Amino acid sequence: MTTASMPVPLGRLTANQTVASRLARDLRSACDGLSCAEWGQLIASSICRATRRTVQARWRALRSAGAWGASGMGHVARVGPRQAASDAWTSTKEAVTVLPVRARRAFWRFRAMTRGKQVDELVQMLLTWLVFSAAAGGADLEGGLPDMDLMAGIGNHRSVFTHSVLLGIETEVAMRFGLHALDDLIQRMPADRHPVWDRVHTAMSRYSERAITGVWLGIGAHLIKDAGLLHLGATKPVVGMPFPMPMEAHQVFLASNGVAAAAMAGSENASGSSRRRTV
Fold it and tell me: Could you report the per-residue pLDDT of 118-172, keeping only the tens digit for each?
């Protein structure tokens, strides 16, 4: 008998069923204790907090990116485009030159961390990469969040709502809403709730911002690829524009939204902060 075909021990199966039953009991207890009015208040409160937190986080990220862009434009205005391009090339070469030194410093900073901190850093990096890959559509950047509009039919593919920064805002609000609502339900569970709920609460506090960063970066990469600026093949225009535009304008729209999504991917470090402040 192979390992795959070996039956699950009865004791383990019973233990898993017991845990699942306890988790279901905790969640049912939190939900059953809510009246219709309290459900409405919980949903409305979660939506408001999710929307407010999303606007605050993206505004800070966009303001930071805008300050960087304004600094660059100011430099161009002062020294002229040719000198600015030369300065940019010089800065790029210098950055590449010092990259090995910075990599070694980062490695030694990582080595100096405690084992728990090292594990936490690796988990956050892995989570960001996994969410980025899922949102972008994998290695070929096909599929992912933007291409979910194909479920509504090929005629709705590349809608302005799914192939612009609007998708990132919609997704972030939805994620934060779910996290807020679940957090409120955890707080309403009985005092003897299963310890896994507290671990879920801690994980949401520590890693939610990294997951949101991965979403924005994934959407940005997908839109830049869809712009088709790096290949000679045809690209599908954006659906739902208010007026006809040449293909070049559609490409600029996709590329600019991709760059904006990547610029808005800035995230605060959620480690060690409370749930109410970070989500």
Answer: 888 888 888 889 999 999 998 888 889 999 988 888 888 888 889 999 999 999 9
The pLDDT of residue 123 is 84
Secondary structure (DSSP) of the chain: --TTTSPPPHHHHHHHHHHHHHHHHHHHHHHHT--HHHHHHHHHHHHHHHHHHHHHHHHHHHHHHHHHHHHHHHHHHHH-HHHHHHHHHHHHHHHHHHHHHHHHHHHHHHHHS-HHHHHHHHHHHHHHHHHHHHHHTTTTT-STTGGGGGGG-GGGTTBTTTSSHHHHHHHHHHHHHHHHHHHHHHHTS-TT--HHHHHHHHHHHHHHHHHHHHHHHHHHHHHHHHTTTTSSS--PPPBT-SS---HHHHHHHHHHHHHHHHHTT-----TT--HHHH-
